[in-house]
Amino acid sequence: MAADGTPGPVDDHPVRSVVVVGAGLAGARTVQALRAAGFTGRLTLLGAEGLEPYDRPPLSKELLSREDPAWLRDELDVDLAGVDVRLAEPATGLHHDAVGVTVRTAAGRYGADAVVLATGASPVRPAGWDGALTLHTAADAAALRGAVGPGRRLVIVGAGWIGAEVAGVAAAAGTDVTVVEAGPAPLATALGARVGALTAPWYARAGVRLLTGTTVRQVRPGGVVLSDTELPADAVLVAVGVRPASGWLGGALPLAADGSVEVDAGMRVPGTHGRVLAVGDLAARASRRHGRVPGGHWDGALREPEIAAASLLGRHGPDGPADPAPYLWSDQLGHALSAYGLPRAEDDVVLRGDPHGAFTAVWFEPGGTTVHAVLAVDRPRDVAAARRLFAGPDLPRLDRAVLAEDRPLR
Ligand SMILES: Cc1cc2nc3c(=O)[nH]c(=O)nc-3n(C[C@H](O)[C@H](O)[C@H](O)COP(=O)(O)OP(=O)(O)OC[C@H]3O[C@@H](n4cnc5c(N)ncnc54)[C@H](O)[C@@H]3O)c2cc1C
User: Which residue from 140, 186, 200, 279 has the highest number of Cβ atoms inside 10 Å of its Cβ?
Assistant: First the structure.
């Protein structure tokens, strides 16, 4: 029985061997967190890219200023010494039962007491758009780098986080950039149309053409087809979102409708005797404060492995697993965005600051004082305040009238 009262292969069945599937941020951090917590047993790390773990955010933000990947050994002191590392051996299947787990690859089988799934997410590419680029790996970044520059025409499908970041970087390098977004505003899926629309003017100021409410029907050599016209392009980047990379699991685990692996607050997959855990973009975590927290952002992949390691080793504190607030950031089109919490579509949004400049958006439960999320744009003080607000055991509560007056966020 674990310290937090949940059953698991801990005190009564100590974990002596762990396979970590996925050698990205969440996988590398799982290895690091287990070792930091004193785990001395056998560790196997399976990867699919043939590269040691590296960081993805620089792939867009530093697309043209950095050619080598930002290795996690340099960025986060990840040390894989003593780990059985197989960077080009993707897992192809999983079996688990009450006594152990087995992970299959094309080369063999890896048995262990427990497995941590960290296979992340893959970019969505609509059927038939084979000629389009995506941006998820170092190899993707290298291909995209070769497609931008003065005199080159780049069409980006999707004004989400990655589309916006690449648009700014490519336009600054002299690329002729058009962003085509099917929704009513940039970032509308993540932030809602009202807040997303506040970012629309940033595009023209950065020299980027933005078409909202416009659907790309097809990607062809030489451009994209819209409903009534064609847009010529030397390269097309599809940035319409990602899907959890769970296909390799077959029917071994139940999956949520979006393909993610739902886990409890300790990152354990229910019904697996505590032997199967999932972290990072693949996982959707149960949070006391935020409900179901989907993957998709760097901070989750950084922090969830510590929770998973504590679950495996029975090291949660008396209050149970840590419950970090969802956090994301983005540098796009000359602006710095940071958000804590999870906005909900039905929330009331209150703005403070200058909606045409530096502003903060606060998502309230409808008609109430409970805050679900805070987004600060170019307002570092509000970022620091939001971090403190979301550090407590409950969701923060704020007075809307005081908030709109633009006094310090408390
Ligand atoms: C260009 C870009 C910019 C980003 N910028 C930001 C940002 O500014 N802020 C932010 O909060 N987040 C950002 N993110 C998101 C952030 O990088 C991810 O949330 C984070 O990388 C998730 O880590 P992960 O380890 O869960 O998944 P991943 O990083 O996707 O790593 C999963 C790894 O598992 C491997 N794998 C897949 N299938 C298998 C298999 N069957 N067997 C073995 N290995 C497998 C994959 O090849 C991959 O290497 C960005 C992402 C990208 C792509």
Answer: 279
Q: Which domains does the chain have, with CATH numbers?
A: 17-122+242-313 (3.50.50.60), 125-238 (3.50.50.60), 334-404 (3.30.390.30)
> How many other CB atoms are found less than 10 A from the CB of residue 67?
11
Q: Confirm or reject: Cβ of 26 under 6 Å from ligand 1.
A: yes
CA of 245 to the centre of ligand 1 (A): 10
DSSP string covering 303-350, please? HHHHHHHHHHHT--BTTBS--PPPEEEEEETTEEEEEEE---TT-EEE
Sheet of strand 348-353, all strands in order from the earlier edge strand to the far edge? 327-332, 335-341, 371-377, 359-364, 348-353
> Do 217 and 345 contact (CB within 8 A), yes or no?
no
| Residue whose entry in the numeric block shows the structure tokens 């149309």 | 193
- pLDDT at position 408 is 77
Q: Is the CB of 303 under 6 A from ligand 1?
A: no
Q: Which atom of ligand 1 is nearest to the CA of 21?
A: 43
Structure tokens at 162: 């990655």
pLDDT digits (tens, 9 = 90+) for 244-295: 999 999 999 999 999 999 999 999 999 999 999 999 999 999 999 999 999 9
123 C-beta closer than 6 A to ligand 1 = no
pLDDT at 403: 83
Q: Is 296 in the pocket of ligand 1 (CB under 6 A)?
A: yes
End-to-end alpha-carbon separation of the chain, Å?
40
Whole-number Å distance between alpha carbons of 242 and 205: 28
Q: Which of 49, 298, 302, 338 to mutate to test the pocket of ligand 1 (most atoms within 8 A of CB)?
A: 298
Starting at the earlier edge strand, list the strands of the sheet with 84-86.
Answer: 84-86, 42-46, 17-21, 114-117, 276-278
Which residue out of 78, 297, 304, 331 has the highest number of ligand 1 atoms within 8 Å of its CB and is therefore the one to mutate?
297
Residue numbers in the chain where pLDDT is lower than 70: 1-12
Per-residue pLDDT tens for 161-190? 999 999 999 999 999 999 999 999 999 999
| Global confidence as pTM | 0.96
| Any ligand 1 atom below 6 A from CB of 280 | yes
Pocket test for ligand 1, best of 19, 56, 306 (most atoms within 8 A of CB): 56
Ligand 1 pocket, residue 55 CB under 6 Å:
no
